[in-house]
Amino acid sequence: MSGGARRAPLHRDRASQAGLEPAGICRHALDVVGRLQRAGHESYIVGGGVRDLLLGETPKDFDVATDARPEQVRALFPKCRLIGRRFRIVHIYGGGKITEVATFRADTSGGAPAAGFRADAGRIVRDNVYGSLEEDAMRRDFTINSIYYDPFGDRLVSHERALDDVRSRCLRTIGDAARRYREDPVRMLRAVRFLARPGLAAERDTGAQIARNGALLGAVPPARLFDQLLKLFHGGAALKVYQLLREHRLFGVLFPQTMQALEHDAHGDFDDFLQRLLACTDERVNRGLPSTPAFVLAGLWWLPVRDAAARLRAHGVPAEEGGSRVRGVSEEEAVQRAVRDVAREQGRSVSAPMRLVAIVREILVLQRLFTSSRKKDLSRLLTHPRFRAACNFFTLLEQAGLADRADCPGWARIEDLERKSRRRDSGGRGGHGGHGGRGGRGKGRRRNAPRRRRKPAGGAA
User: Fold this and answer.
1) Are the C-beta atoms of residues 37 and 164 closer than 8 Å to each other?
2) Pairing with 246, which of 1, 8, 309, 385 sits 20 to 30 Å away (CA)?
């Protein structure tokens, strides 16, 4: 055991008595554990898959923990890939599944870890000190994730409080909550994701320390935070996640521009809109329908973009780079520039890929076409690939009192086309009636249209 590390008090039980049977485990994960054990390695199904089974939920995947080093795992499984710099893990492919295998790691929260493994604030920046099962159990974030299942030996090894916390649906950090959050601030977002589940509640200090340490998220790479937000807002509980992020004062750290807009939203219409949009996203996710993160981003950025576009319209933009002259901008250009500016500022905390920013820009630019009286604008709207996303977005704005279809001269045509499009896509095919699918008479129809014959020179028929 590494110097200074504490030995975790582990309980050993019969897995079948806790209600776990091999039949509940993915065949590929069983094969991985079996092959590792036959090669003489200690191996277990661990983490979320075991936790979800004990909570009576359906696991999304199963991970494996073992005493085999990554190179030893790779030698046993030809179809695998070593990934990660901070955490060296192995992805094993088979049967259309990916099983993640991690080597037992030492608990570096006690004592003095090797130089270079911690930042000044106590944040762990590297974590490849291999250890024992006991040390690995102690270094995990929450007790309910510190449960190891051997499906071939009917053994369950767990942190001393893990099974009791599962039964009482209690989220508790292993060790001091503040220190755990300092080691890896993303644990606070993981806590929020767990607390969004029905009936799960945080132990007092586990919950209280989230708000006190939220600023630590500023030290996390923006791209890593975006990956976490995908899990938060596309897990079927986005509305609850939003409420918890605000309750624990994390939302302003992640989305400072949106938080500022909410604080100046005197009547609460913008908050109402966001809650409606997130509830709409949850409904689609829980029905197994397609959904894109760009729709949520468009909602979060709507008011900051609207206000930034209004400022650009009022003050103009430089006529030439570096020049003092300014020129006016159209409404569409103002929105496009505002999306770019908001995305750039947002990237300081949470960095969204440009492909998603492009979809956000399309959805927000199309909003002005709903109130245009020009036939050309209506035709552009109805044939745009993002029509259905933009239409659902506009409807949610209207429900929150932020738009009015009475201002839309072409609403009757829009409504008729949307009805037909929904009937055609019944059964969940096609894009979201809000999340970015093709709609209207888009490019797909033109692509299949018969090619026109070119008239001979001179105008002969």
Assistant:
1) no
2) 309
Place 424 in a pLDDT band, splitting at 50, 70 and 90: low
Average pLDDT over residues 74-81: 95
Average pLDDT over all residues of the chain: 86
Q: Are strands 89-94 and 97-103 parallel, antiparallel or unpaired?
A: antiparallel
Which alpha helices (DSSP H) does 287-410 contain, by range? Answer: 293-315, 331-346, 354-366, 375-382, 387-399
For the cut 60, the answer to whether the pLDDT of residue 398 exceeds it is: yes
CATH topology of domain 170-249: Hydrophobic Seed Protein (1.10.110)
Catalytic site includes residue 141: yes
Options 63, 67, 150, 282, the catalytic residue: 63
Report whether 60 contacts 48 (CB < 8 A). Answer: yes
Angle 71-187-165 from CA coordinates, rounded to 5°:
100
Catalytic pick from 52, 107, 141, 150? 141
* Nearby residues of 354 by Cβ (< 8 Å), 6 or more positions away: none
Q: Please tell me the predicted confidence (pLDDT) of residue 105.
A: 92
Contact call for residues 141 and 187 (beta carbons, < 8 A): yes
- 8 A C-beta contact, residue 183 and residue 123: yes
Nearest to 225 by CA among 197, 253, 203, 201: 253
What is the per-residue pLDDT across 250-259, written as a single tens digit (0 to 9) for each?
A: 999 999 999 9
Fold topology of 1-168: Beta Polymerase; domain 2 (3.30.460)
- Is 63 considered catalytic here? yes
Q: Give me the residue spans of the domains in the chain.
A: 1-168, 170-249, 271-319+326-447
> pLDDT (tens digit, 9 = 90+) per residue, 278-325?
999 999 999 999 899 999 999 999 999 999 999 999 988 877 666 666
What is d(CA 190, CA 228) in angstroms, rounded to the nearest whole number?
A: 8
CATH of domain 271-319+326-447: 1.10.3090.10
Is 363 within 8 Å of 393 (Cβ atoms)? yes
The one catalytic residue among 61, 154, 307, 341: 61
Query: What span, in angstroms and rounded, lies between the C-alpha atoms of 75 and 82?
Result: 11
